[in-house]
Specification:
heterodimer; A: alpha/beta; Rossmann fold; 2 domains; seven-stranded mixed sheet; five-stranded mixed sheet; B: alpha/beta; 38% helix; globular
Chain lengths: 316, 279
């Protein structure tokens, strides 16, 4: 995803002189091509994320489209007020990019786990929040951020994610991508966990459960229509995110469902519990510890389908 | 330091400063708001900028070639709004809506719907970074305009201020001029007692800035200093303006109380009396 982002940004920068790339001293061995191609529009702001974001907002208010880049929580939580006041309040073309959403930097410890970013960033007025699932979505998301006015947050995986979508996709901000059809329940995923959801849905099918799968690459504005459709047409909704169960995709879906005037099917929010990770290990190990694997997701979804009261505590 | 030579704009700017002080006190009094002390300490600096130094056109507040002014100490916006109104960025009548329900001007500098306010501030430690970004963009474009940022001393406690200072020095932003309203009183006490900034000029120098320390109430010195920026090619300029909190009203001068207190009718009348031209 990181590679897809950087390649797309290079391509966009060659078409649009206003695009600047500002890094918080991170990106060794991957950001060099941009720097060599566009030295005037490359800036290493140093290990100073508050200033990086304020500077980027100031540049954006001078007519630039500025991407700030760092990893995990550094370009977001560390400089949250600069994103809010300097970027969002001024409706600036500030595009905040974090590489390493969720447990991508798992073994580096809790400081490097970006597991509340979606909740925090989507609460800021005017922010568009994108969380692409694979390199193809990342490419489209980068293009969308570069060509759409206003502040954006782009949450990327790290590197080496496989492509999930086999063919071309219709990527539009605020429009979920239907990855597969299904009638018994709907799985809604965001970010690179989509791959595990594809496998989970295939396993469910073997067990005779027909699961629809949506890739919710835009957390804000959330695709309320796709959620309403899932509520009307399928028996349950299961959200899956590599993020706290508080405030992220599951919460955004719940906000829509709770106010949906029609049928409200049971909802199960799969994600990370409200506590810091106590385990040491890489991304797939930590996901496994949190049952966010294809098997774990399939099991949870099957349980909701079989016995929604037991699985969600909510009567259908 | 020898006295500065008389500047041709000084007399007019001094009168403008009196007007700003009167306006700020009236606005704060009528709105029952606060932060008058910091408006008064920076009034002479603002008067020099908006009365003479800044290349701005109130009819074209978004003109690309304009000088940028950032009031980083957004809480002292009363005098700032008064300066903008006086220059014709918006009607003087808007000043009566300061701080009011349904008004145009909120209690910290806000750009939304207010022509002439470059950026919104109010949380300390943001202005110098944003100003640095504007200056960096200006350099990148080969533009001639300058960026002036007016900071409080209190916000020099903020780490982000020093991140920006390091950045501007490193990038040789000589189109950036930071002015610190060094009135030496912050929210809960004397800067020396809260977090001592001294040796203040040495800090800016060490961060790569060209620094001048001036009397922030001597109009000739303010004008000659601001007109001589950049002080050194290739370096951002820092003006440490030694000022008096509450300057111009004897019972407000150097009093922490007037960071917060709102003048009552009697105090308002006494204050205005002291701020008449030739008083």
């Amino acid at each position: 995803m990181r590679t897809a982002f950087l390649q797309t940004l290079e391509e966009m920068a060659s078409q649009d002189e206003r695009i600047y790339f500002v890094t918080g001293d991170l990106g060794f061995s991957v950001i060099e091509p941009f720097r060599e191609k566009f030295p005037r529009r490359f800036l290493n702001a140093g290990v100073a994320e508050q200033n990086m974001t304020g500077v980027a907002a100031g540049m954006a208010l001078s007519g630039k489209i500025v991407f700030t880049y760092s990893i995990a929580n550094f370009p977001t939580l560390r400089c949250l007020e600069q994103i809010r006041n300097d970027g969002a309040y001024h409706e600036a073309n500030l595009k905040v990019v974090s590489v390493g959403g969720g447990f991508a930097y798992g073994a580096l410890g809790s400081s490097h786990h970006a597991t509340e970013d979606l909740a925090v960033l989507r609460a800021i007025p005017g922010m568009t929040v994108l969380s692409p699932a694979d390199p193809l979505e990342a490419e489209h998301a980068t293009r969308a951020a570069a060509t759409t006015d206003g502040p954006f947050y782009l949450r990327l995986g790290k590197a080496g994610e496989q492509r999930v979508h086999p063919g071309p996709i219709d990527f539009r901000i605020g429009k979920a991508i239907r990855v597969r059809e299904g009638s018994d329940l709907t799985v809604i995923a965001t970010g690179s966990i989509l791959k595990a959801c594809v496998e989970a849905c295939a396993a469910l099918e073997v067990d005779g459960i027909s699961a629809r799968l949506l890739s919710m690459h835009t957390i804000k504005p959330i695709d309320a229509a796709a959620i309403a459709e899932a509520a009307e047409q399928t028996g349950a909704i299961v959200t899956v995110e590599e993020h706290s169960v508080i405030g992220g995709l599951g919460s955004a879906v719940a906000e829509v469902l709770a106010q949906h005037p029609g049928r409200r099917p049971p909802l199960k929010i799969l994600g990370l519990p409200d506590r810091f990770c106590r385990d040491v290990g890489g991304q797939s190990y930590l996901l496994k510890r949190n049952r966010l694997t294809a098997e774990g997701i399939a099991r949870a979804a099957a349980a909701v389908h079989r016995d929604p009261i037991d699985a969600t505590g909510v009567k259908p | 330091m020898p006295a500065s030579a008389p500047h041709p704009d000084a007399a007019r700017c001094r009168e403008f400063a009196l007007h700003l002080r009167r306006s700020a006190i009236r606005m704060v009094h009528e709105a029952r708001s606060a932060h008058v002390g910091g408006s008064l300490s920076m009034a002479d600096l603002l008067a020099a900028l908006y009365g003479s130094v800044l290349k701005i056109d109130p009819k074209r507040p978004d003109a690309p070639e304009r000088d940028r002014f950032v009031l980083s100490k957004g809480h002292a916006c009363a005098a700032f709004y008064a300066a903008l109104a006086h220059r014709g960025f918006f009607p003087e009548s808007w000043l009566e809506t300061f701080y009011r329900d349904g008004g145009k001007l909120s209690g910290h500098a806000t750009h939304k719907g207010v022509p002439g306010v470059e950026i919104s501030t109010g949380s300390l430690g943001h202005g110098l970074s944003m100003s640095s970004g504007m200056a960096y963009a200006g350099k990148s474009d080969g533009a001639d305009h300058r960026v002036f940022a007016l900071l409080s001393d209190g916000e020099c406690d903020e780490g982000s201020t020093w991140e920006a200072a390091l950045f501007a020095g490193h990038h040789r932003l000589d189109n950036l001029i930071a002015i610190v309203d060094y009135n030496k009183i912050q929210s809960l006490g004397a800067t020396r007692e809260v977090l001592d900034l001294d040796p203040f000029a040495d800090k800016w120098t060490a961060f790569g800035w060209a620094v001048r320390e001036i009397d922030g109430h001597d109009m000739d010195e303010i004008l000659s200093t601001l007109y001589s920026a950049p002080f050194k090619p290739g370096k951002p300029s820092c003006v440490i303006a030694n000022t008096v909190k509450g300057k111009g009203v004897d019972f407000m001068e150097n009093k922490l109380l007037w960071h917060y207190r709102n003048p009552d009718a009697e105090e308002y009348a006494r204050a205005i009396d002291q701020l008449e031209v030739g008083a």
